[in-house]
Design brief:
Radius of gyration of chain B: 30 Å
Protein name (chain B): NADH-quinone oxidoreductase subunit L
Number of helices of chain A: 22
Shape of chain B: globular
Keywords (chain B): Membrane, Transmembrane, Transmembrane helix
Strand order of the largest sheet of chain A: 4-3-5
Low-confidence stretches of chain A: 398-410, 504-539
Mean pLDDT of chain B: 87
Order of helices and strands of chain B: HHEEHHHHHHHHHHHHHHHHHHHHHH
Distance between the termini of chain B: 67 Å
Organism (chain B): Promicromonospora citrea
Strand order of the largest sheet of chain B: 1-2
Mean pLDDT of chain A: 86
Largest sheet of chain A: 3 strands, antiparallel
Strand content of chain A: under 5%
Structural class of chain B: mainly alpha
Number of strands of chain A: 5
Structural class of chain A: mainly alpha
Oligomer: heterodimer
Strand content of chain B: under 5%
Transmembrane segments (chain B): 6-24, 36-56, 89-109, 121-138, 185-206, 212-234, 255-273, 285-303, 324-341, 376-397, 424-447, 468-491, 511-533, 617-636
Number of domains of chain A: 1
Largest interface: A-B, 49 and 35 residues
Distance between the termini of chain A: 34 Å
Pfam families (chain B): Proton_antipo_M (PF00361), Proton_antipo_N (PF00662)
Chain lengths: 586, 646
């Protein structure tokens, strides 16, 4: 009779995951037991503490894992330096993301609906808003998603990876639906994300099934060893392996946002609450790219000696996807007129640049990918944080009903985000510091030297060159030139173009404008046409203003901007760190 | 030496601080700014003399000291230490620059008295002194280059100093620009030389490069030598980059004296002598240096004979005298010491002549046309005597200082190199003929200004001596013009002094006996002077310049140097520029203009795919999976690959 042998668990190695996921569980309990007044503060503190704690444990584990990678929980979790570094990056970016989420700004409202379950536009929703309800469940949800991402990046077992995929995705689907303003758009985005995500998950798990059919196991390192050792003959069976790996890859490429699995990205990035978009764009991409690198490279270890044909197939597929992704991201991005959509396409283009590096299939790529993800994540979180602060403000009376749920006919009230690029004109004069920070993020995304983005792109492209794909690197450079065009266009609009409302005095918007519209109405009898025009303009009169951050978002923006510049000017300490992380295999 | 070496950075520091205070202090320093400028320069001079006397007190072989100031640049394989090299060569320059510089500062206090921008003028002068000392004290080509560019900037600022509010403002600005642009051409040579040195030797420090010069291949050494020569030609107004110097006289006269006569324009000679080991490894480059020097010395001398503007005549003379120095610098160790010696004496007598010319202009209401002078000796006795000393010095009449240095160069030119007597004959003859022409034009200048029985002044002019601030510097420089050569030249004191740097020259016999050379030179010089005396002192000088012979007309127009530059360089360059402009606008821009259109078009197409319908997105994903499957299948089918990681 076999006795139950409890697995030896290295708790310390699991500590980052446990802290983050455990805090998520505690957060649920907080919802149940902490009084409503203190709930929000508690949740924020808990979330930030958990992420900081997770990061601290990553730091504690670092020397040990660099010296000797481990597999824990019977091989379910594989902690390589690469995976651990990914956990650290996710934790850092999530920390910054939560700061943005937590900021209520000078409007006193955060980006989330008071009760997400209320039907948009109903009186119940209005009631909830007046009652000052807040949906504090977003913080545990964020923690679960973050924990899922960290696990996603640090497993070799495809089934665990699938579970992690769902753990990270489901909270995100929910979070996408919680926007305070433009709620229908937000809910539509969530639904799309969910449906397409389910489709991608199905492809992923189908791939896992095929791999299991081929190897009888779902652990990539085992498969690699067995294939290398000749225990798994490839003849006639390689189709199963290739099809399986490619389907798993498709599932991951969906999360990465690579063409042709990118279609959800612009819609979801636009619809989701902007802080969530920033978090999702930075962290999800980091986790998914790391997982993709691990799947591809662990597969390649096994097959490269036995059947190079398979490696060639994988490489060609990645190259094709990389080219398509860069082209679509860069080209379509350049015709966008909405800041959030522009950033979404920029994120697609960056997925392409990351794939360029990955397509090089060499060891150098691990370090450069990590650096890229950090650099990209910092500028993305920062850029979306800036977007949350640039708002519309109504300056004249008018019956403005619809998606914004601000008090009706209350002049001078700050509405939702001003995401039309044209609305950003003159921002450089209204908010020079914010514009400067945003400029840094854009330059970094464009890959201009002295920003982190340059070092990152240099690393990714040189990875491709080392792998013999110099022409792909050239294509990458050309694509990034196209992206530079739209980043710079945005900068030009912000800094050099004058806002339409620039002559309107900033401090006293309501009284004067009210008077103006009333006089227009009084004299309307003589000139009906003029009256009509005046009413239309008065009703639509919104100016762009910058909401003051209550602190957290400003801190996040500042940290991202400073880090972007530091990583660009003195990249060596971080480069040394990620260089240490170049081990896929325990 | 080591106990005072810590003072060396102050040589540069004092004038640099002076310039900074005057420039940043602005109008607040207007009242006392000029005295601060004098003080800064004077302090540097005091430090310079302290260091000089300590150096004289140390044994010859310990005189060269490198004073490191720490690492400046460390980039890849390039490590440049910031350091100063103090040796007899650089100290000679330090003393010349700070002493003559201080005299000129003092002179300028009076000369620029009525200028509202006097403070700015002194700021620039201080900046110049700091940059010039950086140039000569640098222990690497890179730091030398910093000073090199610094003096270029100061020169530019000072030539164009009067760029507003005067009738000639525009021409002054153009002259400044011309000087700057022509200097840039030379600067490219220095940059290229540094690049070649870094590529071959792996360093740009003198301590690494110069000892290694012997190991360079002859081709490399020639390339470096010619690049350095190009730099020297730009800075020292040598043929073919000589055209800027005449126009540079647009600057205030003290500037012409300090920068465009005594110090900056001799930086090219310094560069040649400092780089001696490189030139010695490249006989071809040496020959080119000699040829450039010979051509320029004749060129300048010929131009000098025809100029009626006193400053332009002196500028042509400067060009010609630097030609002598260049010629000597190309002769190898036998010539180096005399090149520097002539540089030193020339620094004194030419500065004296320029300041004298300034005093004359000051007296005559800024008139520079010598045909409007004449008979000034009675009215400006101090200027007359001090300029007379300078005149005798430049003529090379013993025992005035020019004789000791110039005669050394002429003798060295007559020494056959590599047993090739033709070179000795050609260059020796050029040097002697040049000396004769020099005698002619300087005598002409001197007597057109001071001599003559009848003044040719315009209007109601009342020439008078300037303030003591102006004539004391003249006296100092006059004494230097008279006695410096004798003090340093007799018994070869100066040659011995420089020996630790330039090496000991083996004694070779000239192709003619030395007394014959000296005698012939003196006879020719006296003939030239006598001719000029007859034409310009005995005969009446016409107030309007006669039409003159073809050669005179050519010389008046600087032997058509501007026309030549215009035709050979500017017009073709304009042509190329126009071609590039047209190509850029019509081919490149139009071509690239298609790209944004294409991008927008593709973007609009792809945008249509973004329908917002989940079903079409899902279909897209399914299609993507199929495409990937197809690609994977094709790879197997065609056996294609990317030539990548396999």
């Amino acid at each position: 009779m076999t006795t139950f042998v409890p697995p030896e668990i290295d708790w310390l190695a699991l500590a980052p995951l446990i802290v983050v996921l455990g805090a998520g569980v505690v957060g649920i309990l907080v919802e149940a037991f902490v009084p409503a007044r203190a709930r929000r503060t508690t949740q924020i503190v808990l979330a930030l503490a958990a992420l900081a704690g997770g990061l601290a444990f990553v730091a504690v584990l670092w020397p040990q894992i660099v010296a000797q990678p481990v597999q824990v929980v019977g091989g379910s979790v594989t902690l390589t330096p690469f995976a651990l570094a990914a956990q650290g990056i996710v934790a850092v970016l999530a920390f910054l993301g939560v700061l943005v989420v937590a900021d209520r700004t000078s409007t006193g409202q955060d980006a989330f609906a008071p009760t997400a379950s209320a039907v948009p536009g109903t009186s119940y929703e209005d009631l909830a808003r007046r009652a000052g309800l807040v949906q504090t469940e977003i913080y545990p949800l964020l923690l679960f998603a973050t924990g899922g991402m960290m696990l996603f990046a640090s497993t070799d077992d495809l089934v665990v990876m699938f579970i992690a995929l769902e753990v990270l995705s489901l909270p995100l689907y929910v979070l996408c639906a919680t926007a305070r303003r433009r709620r229908l758009l937000s809910q539509e985005a969530a639904a799309k994300y969910f449906l397409l995500g389910a489709f991608a998950s199905a492809l992923f798990i189908f791939g896992v099934a095929l791999i299991y059919g081929f190897a009888g196991t779902v652990r990539l390192l085992q498969i690699a060893q067995q294939v290398q050792g000749g225990m798994l003959p490839l003849e006639g069976m390689s189709v199963l392996l290739v099809a399986g790996v490619l389907l798993v890859t498709v599932g991951l490429l969906f999360k990465v946002g690579a063409v042709p699995f990118h279609a959800w990205t612009p819609d979801v990035y636009t619809g989701a609450p902007t802080p969530i978009t920033g978090f999702m764009a930075a962290c999800t991409k980091a986790a998914a790219v790391v997982a993709l690198v691990q799947v591809l490279y662990r597969t390649s270890i096994g097959v490269q000696a036995v059947d190079p044909q398979i490696l060639r197939q994988l490489q060609v597929v990645i190259v094709v996807v990389a080219i398509a992704t860069m082209v679509v991201g860069a080209v379509v991005g350049s015709v966008q007129s909405d800041v959030k959509r522009l950033l979404a396409y920029s994120s697609i283009a960056h997925a392409g640049f990351l794939l360029v590096g990955i397509a090089g299939f060499n060891a150098q790529v691990q370090a450069s990918t990590l650096f890229y993800l950090l650099a990209y994540g910092l500028s993305t979180v920062g850029a979306f944080a800036v977007v949350t602060l640039v708002r519309e403000r109504r300056v004249a009376s008018g019956s403005r009903s619809g998606e914004d749920n601000g008090p009706v006919a209350d002049d001078g009230v700050v509405l939702g985000e001003a995401t039309e690029i044209a609305q950003w004109a003159g921002l450089g004069r209204k908010a020079p510091w914010l514009t400067a920070a945003f400029g840094i993020f854009l330059l970094s995304m464009a890959g201009i030297p002295l920003t982190a983005g340059f070092v990152a792109k240099f690393g990714a492209f040189s990875g491709a060159v080392t792998g013999g794909l110099w022409w792909l690197a050239v294509l990458g450079v050309l694509a990034s030139i196209v992206t530079v065009a739209f980043y710079l266009r945005l900068l030009v609009v912000m800094v050099f173009r004058r806002a339409d409302d620039e002559t309107v005095p900033e401090q006293v918007p309501d009284a004067e404008d009210l008077d103006a519209s009333e006089t227009a109405g009084a004299s309307g009898g003589t000139a009906p046409a003029a009256l009509a025009t005046a009413q239309v303009t008065a009703a639509q009169r919104v100016v762009v203003t910058v909401a003051r951050s209550r602190g957290p978002a400003a801190v996040a923006v500042a940290v991202c901007a400073v880090a972007t510049v530091i990583l660009g000017v003195f990249p060596s300490p971080v480069l040394d760190l990620v260089e240490q992380a170049s081990k896929f295999v325990p | 030496m080591n106990d005072v070496i810590g003072l060396a950075p102050w040589l540069i520091g004092f004038p640099l601080i002076g310039a900074a205070v005057l420039l940043l202090g602005g109008r607040a320093t207007d009242r006392w700014g000029h005295w601060l400028g004098v003080l800064a320069s004077g302090a540097a001079a005091v430090v310079g003399f302290i260091l000089l006397f300590r150096m004289i007190g140390t044994p010859a072989e310990e005189r060269a000291v490198d004073h490191s100031l720490g690492t400046w640049l460390s980039a890849g394989g390039l490590d440049v230490d910031l350091g100063l090299r103090l040796d007899p060569l650089s100290m000679t320059f330090v003393v010349l620059v700070t002493f003559v510089g201080t005299l000129i500062h003092i002179y300028s206090v009076a000369y620029m008295d009525h200028d509202v921008d006097r403070r700015r003028f002194f700021a620039y002068l201080n900046l110049f002194v700091a940059a010039m000392l950086t140039l000569v004290l640098a222990d690497s080509y890179l730091l030398l280059f910093v000073g090199w560019e610094g003096v270029g900037v100061a020169s530019y600022l000072l030539i164009g100093f009067w760029d507003t509010g005067r009738p000639t403002a525009r021409e002054n600005a153009v002259a400044a620009k011309k000087a700057f642009v022509m200097n840039r051409v030379g600067d490219m040579g220095l940059i290229a030389a540094m690049a070649i040195l870094f590529a071959t030797v792996g360093s740009v420090g003198f301590a690494d490069v110069l000892p290694a010069a012997g190991g360079l291949s002859e081709g490399t050494a020639t390339a470096v030598g010619l690049c350095l020569l190009l730099a020297a030609c730009g800075k020292s107004a040598q043929f073919p980059l000589q055209a800027w110097l005449g126009d540079a006289m647009a600057g205030p006269t003290p500037v012409s004296a300090l920068i465009h006569a005594a110090t900056m324009v001799t930086a090219g000679v310094y560069l040649m002598v400092r780089s001696g080991p490189i030139l010695e490894a490249a006989p071809t480059a040496q020959l080119v240096v000699v040829v450039v020097g010979a051509v320029t010395l004749l060129f300048g001398a010929v131009v000098g004979t025809a100029k009626d503007d006193i400053k332009k005549a002196l500028a042509a003379s400067t060009m010609s005298q630097i030609g002598y120095m260049m010629l000597a610098a190309g002769l190898g160790p036998a010539g180096y010491a005399f090149a520097i010696f002539h540089l030193l004496t020339h620094g004194f007598f030419k500065a004296g002549l320029f300041l004298g010319a300034g005093a004359v202009m000051h007296a005559m209401g800024d008139q520079t046309d010598m045909r409007r002078f004449g008979g000034l000796s009675r009215f400006l006795p101090i200027t007359w005597i001090t300029m007379g000393l300078g005149w005798l010095a430049i003529l090379g009449i013993p025992p005035f200082s020019g004789y000791w240095s110039k005669d050394g160069i002429i003798e060295a030119a007559f020494i056959p190199v590599d047993g090739q007597p033709w070179r000795a004959w050609v260059f020796g003859t050029v040097a002697v003929v040049g000396a004769a022409i020099t005698a002619f034009y300087m005598t002409r200048l001197f007597f057109m200004t001071f001599g003559g029985r009848r003044p040719r002044w315009t209007e109601n002019q009342h020439p008078h001596e300037g303030s003591p601030l102006m004539w004391w510097p003249l006296v100092f420089l006059g004494v230097g013009s008279a006695g410096l050569g004798l003090v340093l030249g007799i018994g070869g004191t100066f040659t011995t002094w420089l020996e630790p740097v330039v090496g000991h020259a083996e004694h070779h016999e000239p192709v003619l006996p030395v007394p014959v050379i000296i005698g012939a030179t003196l006879v020719l010089v006296l003939l030239g002077a006598a001719l000029a005396f007859r034409m310009y002192a005995v005969q009446l000088v016409p107030e309007e310049a006669p039409r003159g012979s073809f050669l005179t007309r050519a010389a008046r127009r600087d032997l058509y140097q501007d026309a030549a530059n215009e035709t050979l360089v500017v017009l073709p360059a304009h042509g190329i520029a126009r071609l590039v402009q047209v190509g850029d606008r019509d081919v490149v821009d139009r071509g690239w203009g298609v790209l944004p259109l294409a991008v927008s078009w593709f973007g609009a197409m792809f945008r249509k795919v973004q329908t917002g319908y989940v079903r079409s997105y899902a279909a897209g994903m399914a299609g993507g999976v199929l495409v990937i499957a197809l690609v994977a299948w094709l790879v197997v089918r065609l056996g294609a690959g990317l030539g990548g990681a396999q």
